[in-house]
């Protein structure tokens, strides 16, 4: 609670919430997308696979409710709320998974994208990215486009919701995965850290 500065226990998230992405909606709710559904108890039979399930957190943060499933199962997708209130979800890791050496899994990155409309509760396909990206970062820029960095090389790309298309946005100095990305005034952005490099 930002008015009191006090934290309280919220509702328990779905069991598959690991490797999921959380997005704030314009009406005060939150949308949880992607993740991995896991089963098995030992190293030999432990398996995790991406899920298409999604949940919405009520505006008073009291309860999670099932929402419409995505068009494609994804773990660790990248998601951004667009200026019109819809949510763009891109990339992540898909269902073509192989068991890991220990607990976990290894999945192929995705190039596909989709958009969620909170007012209708429906998902629709969006233009596919030029290349697959898993572990990318995204930010809504001041002109309404979405900048996506990392997760598949050095090339950054931008999504324009007005045209429904992607275009190149230059290259970062080095490849990066899992970095932080912040929009700045004046159609600029700052990216920090990541698994492979610094800012």
Descriptive report:
By secondary structure, the protein is mainly beta. It is built from no helices and 18 strands. The strands form 6 sheets. The chain has a 4-stranded antiparallel sheet with strand order 1-2-5-6, with no helix packed on it. A hairpin with a 6-residue loop joins β5 (54-57) and β6 (64-67). The mean pLDDT is 84.
Helix content: under 10%
Stretches where pLDDT is under 50 for at least 5 consecutive residues are none
Spatial strand arrangement across the major sheet: 1-2-5-6
What is the alpha-carbon Rg in Å?
A: 17 Å
Indicate the overall shape. Answer: globular
Secondary-structure map with pairings?
Layout: E1 21-24, E2 30-33, E3 36-39, E4 47-50, E5 54-57, E6 64-67, E7 78-81, E8 87-90, E9 93-99, E10 105-109, E11 113-117, E12 122-126, E13 137-140, E14 146-149, E15 155-160, E16 165-171, E17 180-184, E18 188-192
Antiparallel strand pairs: 1-2, 2-5, 3-4, 5-6, 7-8, 8-11, 9-10, 11-12, 13-14, 14-15, 15-16, 17-18
């Amino acid at each position: 609670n930002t008015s009191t500065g006090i934290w309280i226990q919220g509702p328990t998230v779905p069991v598959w919430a690991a490797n999921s992405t959380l997005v704030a909606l314009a009406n005060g709710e939150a949308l949880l997308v992607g993740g991995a559904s896991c089963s098995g108890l030992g190293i030999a039979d432990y398996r995790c696979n991406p899920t298409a399930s999604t949940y919405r957190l009520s505006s008073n943060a009291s309860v999670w409710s099932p929402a419409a499933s995505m068009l494609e199962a994804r773990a660790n997708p990248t998601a951004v709320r667009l200026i019109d209130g819809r949510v763009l979800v891109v990339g992540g890791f898909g269902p073509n998974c192989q068991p890991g050496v220990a607990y976990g899994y290894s999945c192929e990155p995705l190039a596909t994208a989709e958009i969620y409309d909170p007012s209708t509760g429906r998902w629709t396909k969006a233009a596919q990215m030029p290349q697959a990206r898993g572990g990318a970062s995204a930010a809504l820029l001041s002109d309404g486009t979405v900048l996506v960095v990392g997760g598949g090389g050095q090339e950054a790309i931008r999504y324009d919701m007005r045209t429904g298309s992607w275009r190149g946005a230059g290259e970062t100095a080095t490849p990066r995965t899992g970095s932080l990305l912040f929009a700045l005034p004046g159609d600029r952005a700052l990216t920090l850290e990541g698994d492979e490099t610094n800012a």
